[in-house]
Amino acid sequence: MYTLAVCAEMVFRDLPVHERARRIHDAGFQVEIWDWSRHDLAALERTGAVFSSMTGYLRGSLTDRDGAAELLRTAEESVKVAHQLGCPRLNLHGTGLDGDGLPVAPVAGEATGPMWIAAHRTLTRLAELGERTGVTFTLENLNTAVDHPGVPFAKAADTLALVEAVDRPGLRMNLDLYHAQIGEGNLTELVRRAHGRGLIGEIQVADVPGRREPGTGEINYPAIARTLADLGYEGTVAMEAWASGDSDLALERFRSAFTG
Ligand SMILES: O=C(O)C(=O)CO
């Protein structure tokens, strides 16, 4: 059976992040955070929460030489923090994102051939870093239509292709079904394909439209949950969603969508 986690950046927003982590932990979920450099790490540690994922870099990019060096350097810093918090997965995007989730190096149109080759090289180095230090880097698919215009390798198909081509245990996909629904749809088949190839490091969920908890939009998450159970998926399913109203209620709706 899979484990459930909740992203502390998006719920209980009137509380400091470590208090949010405590509330999520007390409700029986693992906890995810984004940019660790914005948080009081000692306070997060004191919550006793089990951390399942955090952003695995501070700056940088997969595709240009200087950006890749910065990505690797800040990924090494992130690994130290992951060890401090006991966090097993470090999340990556197709390029660095600013505070609004927008790419610091946006791409007009599709990524070029040299960009794919450079991304493959950088991700291989990150996978090696993960294997050497006992963490798993996950490459997340995003959507360019609503939340992250201009991010290269945003499609789930792109992240799947890169992770499969790198083919190392230190790199897996963060299969975000909210972003995939906006970008590509066909979610059940996507889950089956990624799981069948052993590429899923974790799954993230929110409903469409609005990026709120499961049950508030068009995605049939109970059906996705049945697919995951049938496949024997034993990884993490994390809610990365705004609460449509009360945050405790959003957590319970998430739990009931995935535990029936
Ligand atoms: O939008 C997302 O899914 C993100 O991970 C932003 O950091």
Automatic annotation (TrEMBL):
Task: Please give the SUPFAM superfamilies that the UniProt record associates with this protein.
Answer: Xylose isomerase-like
Instruction: Identify the enzyme class.
Output: isomerase
Q: Which GO terms describe its molecular function?
A: hydroxypyruvate isomerase activity
Enzyme Commission no: 5.3.1.22
InterPro entries given in the database record: HyI-like (IPR026040), Sugar_Epim/Isomerase (IPR050417), Xyl_isomerase-like_sf (IPR036237), Xyl_isomerase-like_TIM-brl (IPR013022)
- What UniProt keywords apply to this chain's record, in alphabetical order? Isomerase
The Xylose isomerase-like TIM barrel domain is annotated at 41-245
Q: Which domain of life is it from?
A: Bacteria
Q: Which Pfam families match?
A: AP_endonuc_2 (PF01261)
- Which range is the signal sequence, renumbered to this chain? none
Family in the record:
Belongs to the hyi family.
Q: What is this protein called?
A: Hydroxypyruvate isomerase
- Taxonomic lineage of the native organism: Bacteria, Bacillati, Actinomycetota, Actinomycetes, Kitasatosporales
